[in-house]
């Protein structure tokens, strides 16, 4: 099962990797931090609430910590500091010098700076308790009916048993694996096993015949080929009923690490239509369909994800290839852009997202609140080096929305900033996901932090800081490339240009509750990093503005 793209011998590709190897070799003799090398810096950002330094692990999510975070403007050119989420008096007196990832040499730099004591103290950071977790199958928007919810739970349980049971037995449930390996028991369980070879199965995913007679067997075979594979059932609904037979549609996301040199992360979305015998919970028939094309175009789903993406190869050894947001060809005859239009038009399939938000009590552009994820979005820490370093999954891009004129509890009208973070299949395949803990910020002696508050946030209410998981619906969007940041003054002109272009092409902008177009900003320069403990890190890549690496977008009505 070798991809034609993997077999093709491209001289230019060979030359590219030769130059890459030479650059990495030369960088090993350089002692210059990445900050002094323009065009070559990777920044990993969250904020230390004690000294406003930048560091690579998550700190407290409490609003007080967030208020302290924003006392000084945050600029992407600020040098990074690597330090733990818990600092001693000696460490505060002698902070770590600014460090970063060397040119193509980030892994080596991290190993030199590794401190086992600091990593051990990272374990002391409070994670979300089970009471504050999000239970996927209790989400009424994703699983509105009881029968379809039961089917989805059992299918996910059986898939997790195949993909994660061996890993669970090896690591004893470390890193939250017990969250994934939840095997259901009872009369509803083992639906595929009960169905056996009598089940009719039609799929474009490579199975449906031959040696693999069921989806579970096909998954077992796929694990021998891919470096990693995760499957998440994200929604279910009843679509038909015929006597004792029920027809259920499951929506799923498959994420796999392709076995090539740069370990491409590919994401496939689609649906499975199951005909189930209600009394025995036996699957009689399953038909799979992809979201792209006619539902069977597997080559079309993979062709843009397998070749080496510049920014992933550029950061070899620093951060893994990211699960990129799916950009599907629009469906519907009216969803077409003009011949000379410069914007991109595409659909985003339904997916689970993490949505932290906050009320911006500043004047917006000066403080640059929307430029980086807030502290209350994070629910864990990630060990990236050392003997106990964790495997994590990155997703991209980060979406930012700024809604003006939101009335707060204090009866004031402010802007609310909402970040939309794609949840990877590794996390969403679990039955329960962590949410950031809302703990009081305390000093090391156990007393509450009483330092003076920033006057910009003195009037903040608890509801000003929110974080939630949400099943985002399918969207039709149009975007224009832009090289700046979400709160640049120039964004207004780009929005106007985009709005006029889509209206000219007879596309209908989607309006909010106040009748205003729904604009957003895509930060393609950001990778958000997850473990089974939730969101733990954000990696901000430096990109020259002239490359127009980010996007300004607008939501459109689906035909």
Number of strands: 22
Structural class category: alpha+beta
**What's the arrangement of strands in the largest beta sheet?**
11-18-22-19-14-15-12-17
Number of helices: 14
Average pLDDT confidence is 75
Largest sheet at a glance?
Answer: 8 strands, antiparallel
Overall radius of gyration: 24 Å
Tell me the helix content: 10-25%
The 3D shape can be described as globular
Percent of residues in beta strands?
A: 25-35%
Task: Describe the 3D structure.
The protein has 14 helices and 22 strands. The chain is globular and about 65 Å long. The protein is α+β, with helices and mostly antiparallel strands. The model is unreliable at 1-9, 25-110, 121-131, 168-179, 440-444 and 447-452 (pLDDT under 50). The chain has an eight-stranded antiparallel beta sheet, covered by helices on one side. Strand 20 (526-531) and strand 21 (534-541) form a beta hairpin.
């Amino acid at each position: 099962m070798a991809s034609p793209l993997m077999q093709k011998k491209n001289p230019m590709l060979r030359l590219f990797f030769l130059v890459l190897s030479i650059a990495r070799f030369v960088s090993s003799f350089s002692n210059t931090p990445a900050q002094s090398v323009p065009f070559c810096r990777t920044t990993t950002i969250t904020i230390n609430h004690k000294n406003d330094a930048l560091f690579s692990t998550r700190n407290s999510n409490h609003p007080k910590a967030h208020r302290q975070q924003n006392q000084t403007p945050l600029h992407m050119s600020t040098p990074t500091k690597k330090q733990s989420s818990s600092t001693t008096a000696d460490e505060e007196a002698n902070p770590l010098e600014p460090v970063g990832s060397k040119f193509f040499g980030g892994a080596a730099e991290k190993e030199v700076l590794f401190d086992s004591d600091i990593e051990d103290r990272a374990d002391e950071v409070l994670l979300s308790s089970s009471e504050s977790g999000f239970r996927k199958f209790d989400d009424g928007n994703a699983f509105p009916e009881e029968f379809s919810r039961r089917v989805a739970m059992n299918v996910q349980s059986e898939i997790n048993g195949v993909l994660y049971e061996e890993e669970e037995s090896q690591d004893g449930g470390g890193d939250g694996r017990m969250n994934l390996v939840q095997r259901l028991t009872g009369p509803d369980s083992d639906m595929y096993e009960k169905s056996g070879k009598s089940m009719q199965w039609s799929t474009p995913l490579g199975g449906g015949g031959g040696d693999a007679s069921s989806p579970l067997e096909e998954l077992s075979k796929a694990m021998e080929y891919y470096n990693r594979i995760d499957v998440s059932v994200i929604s279910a609904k009843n679509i038909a009923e015929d006597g004792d037979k029920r027809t259920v549609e499951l929506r799923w996301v498959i994420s796999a690490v392709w076995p090539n040199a740069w370990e491409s992360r590919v994401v496939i979305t689609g649906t499975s239509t199951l005909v189930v015998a209600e009394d025995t919970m036996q699957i009689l028939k399953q038909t799979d369909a992809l979201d792209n094309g006619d539902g069977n175009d597997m080559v079309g789903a993979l062709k843009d994800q397998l070749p080496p993406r510049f920014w992933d190869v550029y950061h070899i050894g620093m951060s893994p290839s990211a699960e990129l947001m799916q950009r599907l060809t629009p469906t519907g005859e009216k969803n077409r852009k003009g011949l000379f239009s410069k914007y991109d038009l595409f659909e985003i399939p339904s997916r689970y997202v993490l949505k932290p938000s906050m009320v911006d009590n500043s004047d917006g552009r000066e403080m640059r609140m929307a430029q980086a994820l807030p502290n209350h979005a994070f629910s864990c820490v990630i060990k990236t080096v050392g003997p106990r370093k964790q495997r994590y999954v990155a997703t991209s891009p980060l979406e930012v929305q700024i809604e003006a004129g939101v009335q707060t509890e204090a009866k004031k009208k402010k802007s609310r900033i909402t970040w939309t973070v794609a949840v990877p299949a590794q996390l969403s395949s679990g039955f329960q996901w962590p949410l950031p803990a809302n703990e009081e910020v305390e000093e090391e002696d156990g007393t509450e932090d009483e330092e003076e508050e920033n006057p910009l946030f003195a009037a903040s209410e608890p509801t000003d800081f929110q974080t939630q998981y949400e099943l985002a619906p399918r969207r039709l969007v149009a975007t224009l490339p832009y090289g700046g940041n979400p709160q640049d003054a120039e964004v207004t002109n780009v929005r106007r240009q985009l709005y006029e272009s889509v209206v000219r092409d007879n596309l209908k902008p989607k309006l909010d509750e106040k009748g205003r177009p729904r604009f957003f900003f895509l930060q393609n320069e950001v990778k958000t990093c997850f473990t089974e403990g939730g969101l733990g890190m954000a990696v901000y890549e430096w990109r020259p503005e002239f490359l127009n690496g980010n996007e300004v977008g607008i939501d459109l009505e689906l035909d």
